[in-house]
Amino acid sequence: MSTEAEHQKNAGNRTFPEPEKDLFLVTGGGGFLGKAIVRRLISRGEKVRTFSRSYYPELEKFSVEQVQGDIADKTAVEKACKGVRTVFHTAARAGIWGPYADYFSTNVTGTRNVLRACRKYSVSEMIHSSSPSAVFDGNDVEGADESLPYPPSYHAHYPRTKAMAEQEVRRAAACGLKVIILRPHLIWGPGDNHLVPRILSRAGRLRIVGEDRKKVDTIYIDNAAHAHILAADRLRENSALSGKVYFISQDAPVPLWDMVNAILAAGGLPPIHRRISAGSAFFIGAVCEGVYKLLRLQSEPPMTRFLARELATAHWFDIRAAKKDLGYRPAVSTEEGLSRLKEWLQSNPYNI
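and the corresponding structure tokens:
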């Protein structure tokens, strides 16, 4: 039996000793953001446990305790949280297409399970990774702060269930659990398994949707991980921050299509020149959704209403609260991040 298979088989029977020092749990620790948080914790000498569906050999070199399980499994989550002081909850189902039940199971039920386990084992603090899409209503958002309300409806299951999860976390905070919610927007960088490969794989088919000067926020992966660590540290020092929500970003909004072209350039691909109107993209998205639902197609449509709105609108945020309360400043500029991404892609090209 392979090493990975052995780990998978024995995951349900594994027990861990009480930690000799503070133990940090990262749910979704094998994901893009989760791994970055793990690396940062390890670099400062912390003891780390991860909870993911799969076993990740690359985490072995960090001496990370790995627990495998489904975030929707209450018992598995409780086992992972036992003996933990701080939880970083990054596990989520992302994307723009798929059954609602799958999004609800991971994003809502999974979050409820983590919250229950934190209460059961008196976890000191929890940092919840959310998304600005939880408050995206399909219109331009320019310089909004955390007072932005939840919209009455959503065009996709991901933002809807992320909003529901946020509200679960806020209720837990009102009942005494120490939590902070972070909303990183469009995380990217070396090792990205979502945004960057999606852009590179669609290079020849992409169209500029609507106006090409609409600005958006992004955040480089190291900055996103840094913000999570800061949030945990500040919450430990100041319980009055519990229940608060913070947008985090590069603090330098850029035109969306400039950023897309910059990522294409980092991958050695030409820029986008062809265009489509915002209205046409939205109509095509609605048609695609209808056809895919009618035919029960499992693959992702080339366009959806949610994606059309995201690509055609401005969405950037005021991060003064994160600066003031958490001491957050982006340590890696967008320019430096793109340089690092280019260097990484030259050594680790995506199979597109």
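(Above: one complete record from the training split.) The domain at 3-12+21-343 is CATH 3.40.50.720 (Rossmann fold).
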